[in-house]
């Protein structure tokens, strides 16, 4: 297990993702008079954590994993669920503090949806570029949320936590990405 985590650079990714969330939390705590972090920064914190954790979705030798006698789909599934747990635990740990990321439904929706989208991108374009689409999509959606039905679907990360259409899109992305990555793994590099 230790070799698996080190081969995928998990300790470094954990430190960087927790550090990014801590930096946003500390800046909000010191520079704002409000307790609840604004939607844009909640989406930014989730996106940064997911982007950093996306680097762990492939090992240096992907061919070795494909030929090993180990059953990889369960390991990949647990890897993604572990990444989701890291994002949720870190951001939920701020609830009793003077600056909190929330609402809880928004954090869960965006973390699951963006992690699923990242896993889907890793399956298609590889882990090195898996974060491009989720980061671009989330930042654009958080900065320019739309209110029309189709606009709400397209900008699901930036929608309020009560948006059912955003929750449906996030759930579809989460399940699709989880299944695709667990079954196929990251795309092969040339």
Mean pLDDT: 90
| Class by alpha and beta content | mainly alpha
Helix-strand sequence: HHHHHHHHH
Largest sheet: none
Overall number of strands: 0
Proportion of residues in β-strands: under 5%
Give the helix proportion (percent range): 55-70%
Shape: globular
Straight-line N-to-C gap: 27 Å
Question: Helix count?
Answer: 9
Q: Note poorly predicted spans.
A: none
Q: Please tell me how large the radius of gyration is.
A: 17 Å
What's the short version?
The chain is mostly helical. Helices cover 69% and strands 0% of the residues.
Strand and helix map with partners:
Blueprint: H1 2-7, H2 10-31, H3 39-53, H4 62-67, H5 72-92, H6 104-125, H7 132-143, H8 149-154, H9 164-184
Helix pairs in contact: 2-3, 2-5, 3-5, 3-6, 3-7, 5-6, 5-9, 6-7, 6-9
Characterization of the model:
With 190 residues, this protein is mostly helical. Helix content is 69%, strand content 0%. The protein contains nine helices and no strands. Helix 6 packs antiparallel against helix 7.
Structural features:
190 residues; globular; mainly alpha
């Amino acid at each position: 297990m230790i070799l698996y985590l080190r081969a995928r650079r998990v300790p470094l990714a954990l430190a960087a993702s927790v550090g990014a969330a801590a930096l946003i939390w500390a800046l909000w705590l010191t520079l704002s008079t409000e307790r609840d972090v604004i939607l844009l920064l909640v989406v930014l914190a989730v996106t940064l954590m997911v982007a950093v954790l996306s680097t762990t979705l492939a090992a240096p030798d992907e061919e070795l994993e494909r030929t090993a006698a180990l059953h990889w789909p369960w390991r990949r599934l647990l890897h993604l669920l572990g990444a989701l747990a890291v994002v949720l635990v870190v951001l939920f740990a701020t609830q009793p503090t003077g600056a909190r990321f929330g609402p809880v439904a928004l954090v869960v929706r965006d973390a699951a949806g963006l992690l699923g989208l990242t896993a889907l991108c890793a399956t298609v374009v590889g882990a090195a570029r898996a974060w491009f689409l989720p980061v671009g999509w989330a930042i654009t959606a958080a900065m320019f949320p739309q209110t029309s039905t189709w606009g709400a679907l397209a900008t699901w990360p930036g929608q309020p936590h009560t948006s059912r259409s955003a929750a449906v899109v996030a759930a579809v992305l989460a399940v699709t990405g989880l299944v695709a990555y667990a079954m196929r793994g990251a795309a092969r590099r040339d």
